[in-house]
């Protein structure tokens, strides 16, 4: 059985609470990604996604200089690197998330995405299940 540590991305770029929305957006563009963890001394404080920028930033007419902590998501679902890939996929499906921060001893040690699950041998079923659950209409979930 493979574990999350076997498939996660361990070199995770992040921003700090001192960064603003513009800086996060530029980092997303440069890294071609849709989510950036917000950390202080490797401790995960929150996550900001491209959707957060649109919904909590642009749609609320906030300036680009808005602090990331004003629009980031703080109630995060996280996993331990020792969690099985199957359990991680189920967790992602249950909470309808595409990116799962991996935390050990209160420190961000990696990120596991649906893509990480999909490109690894033997995890196609887990990634497919998670994606189908995430992509379903909300009224389908109980």
Model description:
- Helices cover 37% and strands 18% of the residues.
- It is of the alpha+beta class.
- The chain has one domain (4-140): CBS-domain.
- The strands form 2 sheets. Strands 1-2 form a two-stranded antiparallel sheet.
- It is elongated, with a radius of gyration of 15 Å.
- InterPro entries: CBS_dom, CBS_dom_sf, Diverse_CBS-Domain.
- It comes from Anaerobacillus arseniciselenatis.
- Keywords: CBS domain.
- This is CBS domain-containing protein.
Give a quick set of tags describing it.
142 residues; CBS-domain; two-stranded antiparallel sheet; 18% strand; disordered C terminus; CBS_dom_sf; CBS_dom; CBS domain; CBS domain-containing protein
If strands are numbered along the chain, what order do they take across the biggest sheet?
1-2
Terminal Cα span: 29 Å
Shape: elongated
Helix amount? 25-40%
CATH fold naming: CBS-domain
- List the quaternary state of the chains: single chain
Question: Would you tell me the structural class of the helices and strands?
Answer: alpha+beta
Q: Please provide the ordered H/E string of secondary-structure elements.
A: HHEEHHEEHH
Give the C-level CATH assignment: Alpha Beta
Overall domain count: 1
Largest sheet: 2 strands, antiparallel
Protein name: CBS domain-containing protein
InterPro entries: CBS_dom (IPR000644), CBS_dom_sf (IPR046342), Diverse_CBS-Domain (IPR051257)
Pfam family, one: CBS
Keywords: CBS domain
